[in-house]
Structure formats: structure tokens, C-alpha cells
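Section 5: illustrative case.
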């Protein structure tokens, strides 16, 4: 009898740690499926820890794979050039840090109007909430407030590009 309770207890401990260990920005993006490019970019840039820290309290503004591709084609960047960009780790870090705020932002709890948040790169991001929806630097948020542990994921239509950073 004792042995059974002991096994049930151990099973629960293992289950809880697996569930907890899994809830990061990266695990939620992986489960959603169409964010592999941004995850690969973070890994290339040596910024995996930005997305896989279970105790982080951050907000990530990220496009999905299609949004990223649309951003590149709007900038007239072809496939070969995109691969070259992926090798520029300085640029990748700038882009990823600009899309991350070191605090948890719930858009649902924000008042209407304009709000400024410091990106982890430095420059502020401007978040506007109005009757049309939510926008970051005028880029539409297409999916709001996806919880990832204590962090939040905000899916934006295209990649946020820092001021004075030129991609090409
Ligand atoms: C890499 O990106 C940085 C920052 O955007 C830029 O200054 C630099 O010229 C780029 N390097 C190459 C080799 O393209
Ligand atoms: C993020 O904020 C926490 C406190 O909220 C702080 O301890 C930590 O150093 C910050 N991280 C970065 C990379 O700024
Ligand atoms: C950046 O946003 C903070 C509020 O989060 C504000 O206090 C600060 O003045 C802003 N900085 C600039 C340069 O707008
Ligand atoms: C809401 O804000 C966005 C981004 O600034 C803007 O493009 C849009 O026109 C605004 N909508 C209204 C109804 O003011
Ligand atoms: C992915 O992003 C694109 C462009 O922002 C958007 O049109 C599309 O609806 C998104 N896909 C999903 C499944 O949310």
C-alpha cells in the first residue's frame, strides 16, 4: 500500500516538473507550429536563453513564418540574401532584442491610447490600443496575450525593425 502511494507521488512530481519545465516562450511557439524561423533565428544569434527561460517575465512581439517572409519580400530580400542575413548575428540580435520587452504586457489590461515600453535593445516600442485593435509601431497585433508561463507572446503582422537598423 505504502509503495503504491509512493509511486503515485513520484509520478505526480515528475509530471509537474515536466509540465512546468515546458512552459516557456519557445515551447509555446513550438507548439503553435508556424514560428520555426524566429526560433531558428534566436538559436543562430545565441539568444536561445531569451526564449527558453521558464522564470522569465517578458513580452515577445513576433511575426509567424509567413509574417517574416512577407517582411523580407516587402524589403525586396530574396532567399539567398535572407540566408546571408541569418549569418549576421549582430543584426539578428538587434532584431530579436527589439521585439522583446523585459516585462509581461497584457494588452487586454491596457487602457486605450498610446503606451511606451523599453525594448531589450534599448529604444522604446510604442503600443497603441484603439477601436481598430492593437498596434506596435503601427504594426498590427494579430494574436494577443498568448500566455507562456509568466511571459506573454504578442503575434504581430510583420517583423519590428529598430530605428537606424538597415536590412539589406
Ligand atoms: C550586420 O548587421 C550590422 C547591424 O545591423 C551591420 O552594421 C553590418 O554591416 C552587417 N554586417 C554584414 C556583413 O552585413
Ligand atoms: C529583467 O528584469 C528583471 C527584473 O524584473 C531583472 O532582474 C533582469 O536583470 C532583467 N533582465 C535584463 C536582461 O535586463
Ligand atoms: C520610453 O518609455 C518610458 C516609459 O516606459 C518613458 O518614461 C520614456 O520617457 C520613454 N523614452 C523616450 C525616449 O521616449
Ligand atoms: C488605431 O491606431 C492605428 C495605429 O496607430 C492607426 O493606424 C489606426 O488608424 C487607429 N484607428 C483609429 C480608429 O483611430
Ligand atoms: C500568420 O501571419 C500572417 C501575416 O501576419 C497572417 O496573415 C496569418 O493569419 C497568420 N497565421 C496564423 C495561423 O495566425
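Designed sequence:
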Amino acid at each position: 500500500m505504502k509503495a503504491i502511494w509512493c509511486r503515485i507521488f513520484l509520478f505526480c512530481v515528475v509530471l509537474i516538473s515536466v509540465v512546468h519545465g515546458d512552459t516557456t516562450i519557445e515551447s509555446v511557439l513550438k507548439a503553435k507550429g508556424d514560428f520555426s524561423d524566429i526560433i531558428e533565428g534566436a538559436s543562430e544569434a545565441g539568444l536561445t536563453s531569451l526564449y527558453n527561460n521558464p522564470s522569465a517575465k517578458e513580452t515577445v512581439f513576433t511575426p509567424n513564418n509567413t509574417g517574416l517572409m512577407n517582411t523580407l519580400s516587402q524589403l525586396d530580400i530574396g532567399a539567398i540574401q535572407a540566408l546571408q542575413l541569418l549569418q549576421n548575428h549582430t543584426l539578428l540580435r538587434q532584431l530579436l532584442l527589439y521585439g522583446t520587452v523585459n516585462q509581461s504586457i497584457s494588452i487586454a489590461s491596457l487602457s486605450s491610447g498610446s503606451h511606451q515600453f523599453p525594448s531589450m535593445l534599448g529604444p522604446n516600442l510604442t503600443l497603441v490600443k484603439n477601436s481598430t485593435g492593437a498596434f506596435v509601431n503601427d504594426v498590427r497585433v494579430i494574436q494577443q496575450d498568448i500566455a507562456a508561463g509568466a511571459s506573454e507572446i504578442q503575434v504581430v503582422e510583420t517583423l519590428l525593425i529598430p530605428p537606424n537598423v538597415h536590412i539589406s
